Amino acid sequence: MDKHTVISNRQMLAIVALATVGTSSLYAPATLVHYGGRDAWYLVLMGGVVGIINVCVFVWLNRLYPGRNYISVILLVFGRWIGGPLALVSTLFYIDVGTWVLREFSQFFVIALEPTIPIVWYLIVGALMCGYAVRLGIEVIARVSEIIFFITITAFLAIYSVLINQYHPEYLLPVLEHGLLHPLKGLMLSASWFGDLMFISMILNHVRQTKRTPYYIAGAMGVIFFILLLAVVTCIVVLGAEATSTFTYPSISLIQNISLFRNIERFDAALVAVWVMSAFVKITVYFWAGLQALSTVFRLRHPGRFVWPLAGAFVISSHYKAWGLIEISHFYDQYAWYFVLFQLGLPMLVLLAALARRKLPAAS
C-alpha cells in the first residue's frame, strides 16, 4: 500500500505544518508560559532551533539512503539482530503518539461539546475516520491536507489580526529578566512539540523530490515556528502571562474577547473547527506512518488488511491511557524526554552509525 505513491512538495509542507502546529497551538501558550513566564517566546525560539536540527537529521538520512523510510534505514544500518528491536520500538512509538493525540482529540470533545457521551464513542468515530483516510492512501491524505492547510493558516492569521487593538506590548517587559538559562527549564517540552514532525522520516521517500524540496521543508518549519510564536505572544500581550498560565486552552479564552460590529461574536467556534481538522490530520498521518513501519518490520505484503485491526488497537490503547485532560497534560510535561528520545536521540544515533558505516569501507 502506498509503495509507489508520490506527493508534491507543497502537499508535504501542508501535512508537516498541520500535524505539528495545529494541535499544539491550542494549549502550548499555557504550558510554555508556566515555564518561561513572559519570556515563553524564547522557549519557542529555542525549540525551533532543536526542531531544525531534528528535521536535518531525517533529511540527511534520506540523502544517504534515498527511497528508504526511517524504519528500513534502521534495519539496514544495524542489521536484523540489533536493528530489528530498534525498528520495532520506533514503530510502536509512531502508534503510541497517534493514540495519545486520538485521546486528546476525544477528550476535547467531552470537555467542549457534550460531556454526557462516553469518550469511547468519540474514540471509535475518530479511529474510523482516520482509518478510512489511511485506507485510501497518503495521496488522498495529502490532498485533503492542502485544503485544510489553507483554511487553518487563514483562520489563525485572521483571528490574531482582529485582536491587534487589544495588544499590550508592555506585558512582554522586562525581556529575559532572569537571564537566558532560566526559561530553558521548559526546553524539553518545547522541543517535543517541534519534534512532532518526525513522521516526515516516513513520508520523504514518497515525495517527488526536486531542487526545491529543502526549501519546502524549511518553509514548513517556518510556518510551524511563526504560528506557535504568534499564539504564545498574542496570549501574553492580550491576557498577560499570569492569566495565560491559568487557562487550559488560553487560545480559546483569548478569542472569546473578539467582537465585530458589537454583534458578531463566538469566533472560538472557528478555532475549535480548525483544531479538530488539524488533529484529524495528525492522527491520520501517525496512523499511516505506524502502518508503514509495521509493513517494513514484518514485511507485510498487504498492509491494507491491517488498517482496521490497527484502528481497534488505537481505540483500546487511547481509552486506557489516561483518566482525563489533567493526566494527559501531566504526561506531556513530565515525560517530554520520552518523546525527544525517539524524535531526536535515536535518529541521531542512527545517523552517526550510518556515517560510520560508510566511512569504514572507504578507510579499508
What secondary-structure arrangement, pairings included, does this model have?
Layout (H helix, E strand, L loop, with lengths): L8 H28 L3 H25 L5 H43 L6 H18 L1 H25 L24 H8 L5 H4 L9 H27 L1 H6 L3 H6 L12 H31 L8 H13 L5 H10 L1 H28 L1
Describe the structure.
With 364 residues, the chain is an all-alpha fold. The chain has a single domain (9-354), classed as Amino acid/polyamine transporter I (Up-down Bundle), CATH 1.20.1740. It contains 14 helices and no strands. Helix 1 crosses helix 11, helix 2 (40-64) crosses helix 6 and helix 3 (70-112) packs antiparallel against helix 4 (119-136). It is globular, with a radius of gyration of 20 Å. 47% of the residues are buried. The model has no long low-confidence stretch (mean pLDDT 89).
